[in-house]
Each structure stands twice: as C-alpha cells, then as structure tokens.
Amino acid sequence: xxxxxxxxxxxxxxxxxxxxxxxxxxxxxxxxxxxxxxxxxxxxxxxxxxxxxxxxxxxxxxxxxxxxxxxxxxxxxxxxxxxxxxxxxxxxxxxxxxxxxxxxxxxxxxxxxxxxxxxxxxxxxxxxxxxxxxxxxxxxxxxxxxxxxxxxxxxxxxxxxxxxxxxxxxxxxxxxxxxxxxxxxxxxxxxxxxxxxxxxxxxxxxxxxxxxxxxxxxxxxxxxxxxxxxxxxxxxxxxxxxxxxxxxxxxxxxxxxxxxxxxxxxxxxxxxxxxxxxxxxxxxxxxxxxxxxxxxxxxxxxxxxxxxxxxxxxxxxxxxxxxxxxxxxxxxxxxxxxxxxxxxxxxxxxxxxxxxxxxxxxxx
Length: 364
What we know:
Strand order of the largest sheet: 1-2
CATH architecture: Alpha/alpha barrel
Radius of gyration: 24 Å
Order of helices and strands: HHHHHHEEHEEHHHHH
Distance between the termini: 35 Å
Number of domains: 1
Shape: globular
CATH class: Mainly Alpha
C-alpha cells in the first residue's frame, strides 16, 4: 500500500492538471490546456520523507489557484463562484483541444440555467451585440418564471435538508464485504475510500486520547474494528474482489484499461480533434493509448460487478474526490503498524482537539 500511495501522490494529480505544464511533469501524454481560463502558475515538482513535500504543496496550490479564478476577487462581497460550465458528457476531446468561446457557453446556459441573463449582460458588454441586451431585458414566456428573481431561494439550497432526510440508520454490504454507502448508485468507490479514511483517522484519535473503544446499540467496538474495516475496504479495491482486479490504474496485473478520461483515451499525436471527433476514441473497444497511473475508477455496482467500458462513466470515471480519499486512507494505514501514531506521531494535533469521552466506557 505504501508504494501505491506514493504513486498516487504524483501521477494521478499530474494527469488531471490544466495550464502550461512544467518540465518536471511526469505524464508524457499530457500537454498544456485551458490556457484561456486564467494565468498559469508554472507549478514545479517538488512529503519530506520521500522528497515529495514540495510537490504535494504545489499540487494543492494548483487547485486553489483555479478556485481563485472562479470569482471576482475585486468585489466587496463574494457570494458566488462560476465553475463546471457546460456538460462534460456532451462531447469528447483532449483537454489540450478545448475551445469554448463565450457564445458557445452562453448557448448552453441559455436553455438550462435561470441565470442566463447575467451571461447576456456580460456578453453585451464584451461584444456590443444588442441581441444579448435584448435577451437580458426580455419577457420571453419560455424563460422560467423565477429566472429574474435573483434573490430567489433555489432548490439547491434545500440540499442539506434533503441529504438528512435520505439518511439511513444502517447500510448494506455486498457478498464480498464491500460497503454500500451510496445505496447501489454509481461511482461507489469514492464514498468507500473517504469512509475508510475517516474510520482510520478516528481510530488514531481515540488511541491518542486513551479510549480503547465504545458502545453502539449495546454492542462494544474496539478501535481495532475501525482499522480492520478500513483495511478490508482497501483490500477489496486493490484486488480482493470477485472480479480479481484492482480498481486503481497501474496497480497489479489486472486493472481498468478503458478509463473514462479524455486525456488518457485520445492519442497524444499532435493532432487536433474537435468535441465531436473525439467520440470515436470514447466509443472504441480498444484500450486507452495512455494510462493515468494511480487513478481510481468509479468502481463496481451493488452486485460486485464491474464493466470496463469507457462510455459508461459510472464504472470507469476517476474523480479527484475519490483519489483524495484513497491517498488519505492508504497513508493512514501504511504510515505505521501501530494504531494511534499514523497521522500524528507526536500527538500535537490530537492534543489540541477536545478530549473525547464516550458516555458508556467499557469496563476495566
């Protein structure tokens, strides 16, 4: 696991970078992309023990620099950001070939967003085209009736309450012990790795606080149960599953070869492919010409079945949220063989945290 976590720190994040890539970038099939999205930072390669501390910091900076470009930093109040414009499944091209002029992005927003008028105003300012001004001031009956209510509370504000209403007191395991935290819906692995990380972290915290375990519904659980759970889920992901495969690209002899990733699935041949032209690479039965080593895919369904199909992103699409949890879980389980000293060897972090005392401590 330790070797895998080191690989994940470097290759996976580098395979998803945008901008002008530094010479130290290890992914030969990735080139510069998204240059019009904002000023590039020329990040360079750099965890202290493995000479990757500076590099890990730069990877974080790369993401935060992007976030800083999603809002107007000169505004007196920041109350919204703009990101993920467009539909990622509407086309397939290399990141290096992305060309989305403002008018194209607006055309997408015009039919799918209540905020299209903001786009109309800004496009009018940029192009002096009165058509956009007319749209901003229009009373088109096809426009949603609440489109102009900019102070309108949208359905998205109800998300936290909805999540709570959907919460289940118990969850299920597959026949092979794979926990179903998303209740059988796609992209299962990202939930599992983050749960494994939290279980391992909490075990270390409880150990540092001198708490050997706790009661839950009259059942006693030691902290070793948390570590065992996290380990079992990582083992499943890395090969101990009915498919006898690893769900991490590049790990083991059998792993996904048709990953749903534009940069990995389209050849690095210095040719320009449009959004539509890229579909032939998405739909080809051939293996990806490039392996995004260290990427964890979406994972199996609720019946332990996995289909290595590039055009079914539910199974084969890697995500940053999933890989972040994977790296954290692997590090927590491989930093040490002693429970309680994995993340915080000198307890400086846990000692600053409020002491945890379960209501029902186990008998001595």
